[in-house]
Every structure is written in structure tokens, then in C-alpha cells.
Amino acid sequence: MVRAAVLPSVGAPLEIAEIDLPEPGPGQVRVRLAAAGVCHSDLSLSDGTMRVPVPAVLGHEGAGTVVSVGEGVTHVAPGDGVVLNWAPSCGACHACSLGEVWLCANALAGTADVYARRASDGSDLHPGLNVAAFAEETVVAASCVLPAPDGVPLADAALLGCAVLTGYGAVHHSARVRPDETVAVFGVGGVGLAALQAARIAGASKIVAVDVSPEKESLARDAGATDYVVASDTTAREIRGLTGKQGVDVAVECVGRAVTIRTAWDSTRRGGRTTVVGIGGKDQQVTFNALEIFHWGRTLAGCVYGNCDPARDLPVLAEHVRAGRLDLGSLVTDRIALDGIPAAFDNMIAGKGGRALVVF
């Protein structure tokens, strides 16, 4: 038996409970977690903004050590360090055939599976976003594990599984930031901090961080922000003032709220690019008129998982870490135990801190 954070139903508080994990079957891997990041997507799953079968063990950003493998698994072995991949591509759907593996139609098929049972009553448990990282150990499909990069501590490597892939990919793959361009990043959480570092790595000349919290300015500047704006009704005007009244070349929205998406759009120059990373609810309606779409010539794009292929991008990120260009530890503002996850959710709702990391 292992301890896990169980979501009994949508909107219910998480419960720390003992669960029974089976031994890995064919094509499966059992992993002992070193750390798991607490992502806003986990909060969205718990409150019903995103839907998964329940009861479930949440957590999708993690890394750990292989305990055992099932028949047919050859790319990892017991004792290996691995990073969890919560959205493995099937390689067969239309998106995969186009090379857009981040849009794989079958990436979340495993969330409908029963992967474990609650020890107290034998009730079925589903694996959140495929990997159930809010637990001391988990059993996942072999496609959900990637070899951990050399030279990166496992606890730090957990962040590569979502926050860093998403933030880095939004800047490099979706927005395609070029040297000397100007960038604004809306939301200074884990993904936003990664996006700020990615903009610095890309060679942006001015990097404006935007957040509702004045207390996050030092975090943002440490990550690469050259300017900091506390979100208000005048945010777009302030950003244009910082860029010769033009607006930034690129805005990256990491919040998922209609008002923030609209402000990010308004903050970009004529012909600029706005990339939306944040996941909002269906009630978040963003409105544009036909004339402004023509006049401004801006591009508005969604961004899933940073438009990343984890197998391709993890080695690139690892090299940035080893070279000192990417500081994973600076994303983490709280290191917690399993029972600290509800408080981490509360901090996200209140807009406090960067990434909370569950350390086992």
C-alpha cells in the first residue's frame, strides 16, 4: 500500500488515503515518486473546469525511480530515473501523422482506466491525467515515462514534465520568439516563470511580467523580467508605454481568464502575436470585433502543452539546465508534503507564489 491524495468527487476536498497498487502488467511501469509539482490544471480537475473520471488520484507533473517493469518494457529498467509524460502520443491519429503530437486524439485515453483501488473499501481509482503523481508510487503505461536527463536532480526534473515544457514551448514553439523581440508574460506562476526564462533564453530585448500580486516582482525579475506591471485596467496602456507606444511583439497568457486574454491581445503591437496557454472555463468568453481583427493584423493562437514533443524537447531543456541558462529550482516557492496540496490549491486561487512541489 502507498499513500496518495485522492479526489473523491468533483468539488470535494482531497483526501490523503492508502491505496493498493497492482504489480505492473505488460507494457506498464511502477515508479516511486521523488517529487510532483502542483499545477493549476490539477486545481481545474478538482473543481470541474476540466473533466476526468472520479474518484481519481491527481498529479501529472512528476519524476521518480523505476521500481519494476512489466513484460515488453525495454526502454527503462528498475533503478532508472524517469520523468512522467502525462500526455503520451499514440503515433496513429491524424494529429500524430502531422507531427503535432501535442494534439494527439488519444493522449488522455488512459484516464478512463482503473489503475488502483482504495485500501479501505476496495473502490476503483482512476489515474487523473494518466500518471497519478500525487502518490508515493504509481503504475503507468510505459509510454508515460521518459528517461530522466543526466545531471538534473530528480526532484527538479519533475518540473520538466509540465511547467517547463509548457512555458518554454509556448515561447519557442508557439510564439516563436526571435532575438531582440519584446515579450509580455501574463501570470507569474510556475508556467509563467518558465516562460520568462524561455524569453530570456530566446534573446528577447524587453520582457514584461504581469501579475495581480506586487509580491511576485522579485520572482519575475530573477526569471528574466526587465519590467514588472501589476495587473489593472490600464495594463495594456502601461505595456505600450514601455515599448514606444507600439506594444510588445509577443504576449504569452498563462492565466486562462477572458479579461487577461483580451488584455494580452491589446498589449501586442500591430502584427504581433498572442499565445494563450492558460486553461479557462467555458464561461470565459472573449470578444473581438471584425474591424479590429482586420486593422491590427494580430495573431491569436492557443497552445497545448507548449506545442512540445517531450521526447524531443526534454534533452534540449536538460542542456539549458546543465549550462546554467535554465534554473529549475527558482520556479519553486514551496516544498510540501502530500497533505500540503489543498493549501497549495488555495495559494493558486489567491495568486500567491510560484510552483509548489510535493517532495517524497
Descriptors:
single chain; 11 helices; 26% helix; alpha/beta
Kindly describe this structure.
Strands 3, 5, 6, 9, 10, 17 and 18 form a 7-stranded mixed β-sheet that branches. A 6-stranded parallel β-sheet has the order 13-12-11-14-15-16, sandwiched between helices. It has helices at 40-47, 94-97, 154-157, 163-174, 190-202, 217-223, 235-241, 258-267, 290-296, 310-322, 341-350, and strands at 2-7, 15-20, 28-38, 56-57, 61-69, 81-84, 116-118, 124-125, 137-141, 145-147, 182-186, 206-211, 227-230, 248-253, 268-276, 299-302, 332-336, 355-359. The two termini are 15 Å apart. The protein is α/β, with parallel strands linked by helices. The model has no long low-confidence stretch (mean pLDDT 96). Helix 4 (163-174) crosses helix 5 (190-202) and helix 7 runs parallel beside helix 8. The protein contains 11 helices and 18 strands. Strand 12 (206-211), helix 6 (217-223) and strand 13 (227-230) form a beta-alpha-beta unit.
